[in-house]
Amino acid sequence: MGENSNIYFNRRLGKRPAKKDKRTLKLKKILRDIPDIPEKYDFDIAHPEASIPLPMFANDIWGNCVIAGRSHQTLRFEFTEQNRVISITDDDVIKQYFKETGGADEGLVMIDSLNSWRQEGWSVNGGNYNIYAYGKVNPKNRYLVKATIYLLSGASTGFMLPISVERQMDSGQVWDVVKGFEGEAGSFGGHCVFICGYDEEGPTCITWGQKQKMTWKFLSTYCDEFFGIVDNRNKENSNIDIYKLNSYLIKVTC
């Protein structure tokens, strides 16, 4: 088992320590003037006709949270693009996970996995799905966090979770900051979640087969990786400066 593969009540983790790459795009550099952002937003509430499921994607067995998070995001990207909910199975997720790890259940580095998603894509139900680009966001910048979630149909995020999240989740509570050992960053481990919405209290993520709310303080305290992803359809978003984005991609791909 990898260092972030602890088992707690049938929940696995799997985000390896954040990797710094100075070439990583800062999302705010390619955003045009940001329009008014609503006070609350949730992709699934905005698209009730989709009835998008919330599978565990085998993250109770394997430390594949990075690919599980990708799967939840892909479901929403493709609903926007194809107007249907595509099928993603546990086997699809497990196959991609071990492809990227080389066969070991040791978790993944988020930025390496994002690069793989962009450059190679991944196979789902007979199709290959990739993304156009991704950019990092400062999780302490609440306005930009909200803009990312609203404009790009969610966000891929990494946390150094405190052990308190287990108790809070099991009792139906919001993830919030607590004092003492239970509140120490990383005392539970590294975990990747897909954030699909937000409101006045804080963001909402999808993890371990359900939606989980957190406070804004929790996000700013424990989130160490926050990425906005430009899907192939999102590159046509009027709020994205495609010329700046393409210029950046040429530089980092050469």
User: Helical residue percent?
Assistant: 25-40%
Unreliable segments of 5+ consecutive residues: 1-8
Structural class: alpha+beta
Question: What's the helix-strand series?
Answer: EHHHHEEEHEHEEEHEH
Question: Any idea what the CATH architecture is?
Answer: Alpha-Beta Complex
The shape is globular
The number of helices is 8
Rounded radius of gyration (Å): 17 Å
The CATH topology assignment is Cathepsin B, Chain A
Which class in CATH terms?
Alpha Beta
Q: Major sheet, described briefly?
A: 7 strands, antiparallel
- The CATH superfamily name is Cysteine proteinases
Q: What fraction strand?
A: 15-25%
According to DSSP, the number of beta strands is 9
Account of the protein in words:
By secondary structure, this protein is α+β, with helices and mostly antiparallel strands. It has a single domain, classed as Cathepsin B, Chain A (Alpha-Beta Complex), CATH 3.90.70. The protein contains eight helices and nine strands. The strands form two sheets. Strands 1, 4, 5, 6, 7, 8 and 9 form a seven-stranded antiparallel β-sheet that branches. The termini are far apart.
